[in-house]
Amino acid sequence: MPNDLAYTGTPASPAGAAPTVLIVDDDQDFARSAADFARSHGYTPYLAHSLEQSRGFAQLALMDLLLLDLDLPDGSGFELLDEDALPESGQIAIVTGYPSVETAARAVARPVMEYLVKPLVPEQFGELLDRVAARGREERSADPLGMIGRSPPMQRLGADLRRIAPSTLSVLLSGESGTGKELAARALHRLSGRGGAFVAVNCGAIAPDLLASHLFGHERGSFTGAAGRHSGYFEQAHGGTLFLDEITEMPAALQVYLLRVLESGALTRVGGAGEIAIDVRVVAACNRDPLRAVEEGALREDLYYRLADVHLELPPLRNRSGDAALIARAVLDELNAEHGARKRLAGGSERALAAHPWPGNVRELRSAVRRAFLTAPGDEVRIVPGARRLRAAAEDPATVRFSVGMSYAEIEREMLLKTLAHFGQDRTRTARALGVSVRTVHNQIARLREAGCEVDATIWTERGGPSK
Ligand SMILES: Nc1ncnc2c1ncn2[C@@H]1O[C@H](COP(=O)(O)OP(=O)(O)OP(=O)(O)O)[C@@H](O)[C@H]1O
Ligand SMILES: [Mg+2]
């Protein structure tokens, strides 16, 4: 097949994490020059030469663009379109050397956005690449929810949030720490159209005996230290949204009063007499299963039902296939913009991100990206999940601690660092103790350093400036 794609030298796309394209074509020359062309438009290209190879691509669903040839050695490109692992609709282009009315019609009937005929016209291909890249950037930055994620559970959550936001239904958000409960609460407020303020209260962070006056306000002299009149968070959220975080930490007596306020739509300040009418939409959150909390007595059942007109659960990051890489790229976009840099994820990062269990969820991921960004020696950012945990473990010199959720790679690193420390950085004795060659030890140390970590054999430290 002729290859008419010249390398045009178009400037690479603006700073930001590179968009990705998977080129599925058995014509290797074509695939390679299309890859070069995509690279010149700021893309990270990936190649597959058969259906089988493209199926083996774990990150298929994450590609910004899929360029699909129809005549492949093991079948038609259309077969791939019948499978679930595809990128979201509208990000697929059929490229064929043998255009026909029949295949064009089939393409139109599917979520295919382009039907291109070889040889590709550079202007046309370039325009497609730029359009898809711009869309990806927009998706990552301007999503009205501010929550990044294309995985099925996040799509469902996004749809629920959008649907519920304009109503006055109370919403209870549950999910592990760092999964985005507060972000979801803010999104509910933003999309609610309510003119008042968004007020967030962490019920676990305020001393229990002060919580009532903080929430409901107090009158002068109502208790020791209550100097003047004071309106509480409820009044401040009038016309807006009150976010009650860690609701299960609220003392039981206060839960009773809260329920009364919610039922009556009016409150009485601590030490006050008159009732004050309030119009507040309440969103509550807890990082445990709320029904369990009810069973255990941490959350009153009647209050649970009042708070949870709708109960939404934020899935842990490890159950959002592919989202970790999307979020990492978005965080990189932010950091690049902030620092005027153009760093990008190193090859293989997606696999590493997908393999890590992220016990601290998105919060942990954000700080891992930030740390990797700040410590990357060049433009390639290599994210090393769990570096913090390794350092903590490294503080005890003689014991290696493994916890469920660590990957083999992490366990291996931990083993190596501890053994090196034990033998006073002697690589030969370390190798002997671990039953590997000295060369393996050398290589492992080199890999750790490459990943942006300083290995001085006694402690694991993070190179570079402070991280969040
Ligand atoms: N889907 C997402 N896309 C982008 N950023 C996210 C997403 N979810 C969470 N974050 C970010 O992760 C961090 C933690 O989120 P958030 O504070 O909302 O979590 P949380 O569930 O309230 O955690 P905790 O239970 O510890 O209070 C924040 O910086 C937030 O902006
Ligand atoms: Mg929170």
TrEMBL record:
Family annotation (CDD domains): AAA
KW Phosphoprotein (keyword) present: yes
4-aspartylphosphate modification, residue list: D69
Gene3D superfamilies: 1.10.8.60, 3.40.50.2300, Homeodomain-like, P-loop containing nucleotide triphosphate hydrolases
Every Response regulatory domain range: 20-133
Recorded superkingdom: Bacteria
PROSITE patterns named among the record's database cross-references: RESPONSE_REGULATORY (PS50110), SIGMA54_INTERACT_2 (PS00676), SIGMA54_INTERACT_4 (PS50045)
GO BP annotation list: phosphorelay signal transduction system; regulation of DNA-templated transcription
Keywords: ATP-binding, DNA-binding, Nucleotide-binding, Phosphoprotein, Transcription, Transcription regulation
InterPro entries: AAA+_ATPase, AAA_lid_NorR, CheY-like_superfamily, Homeodomain-like_sf, HTH_Fis, P-loop_NTPase, Sig_transdc_resp-reg_receiver, Sigma_54_int
Domain Sigma-54 factor interaction per the UniProt entry, residue ranges: 147-374
Gene Ontology MF annotations: ATP binding; sequence-specific DNA binding
Keyword match Oxidoreductase: no
Identification of the protein by name: Sigma-54 dependent transcriptional regulator
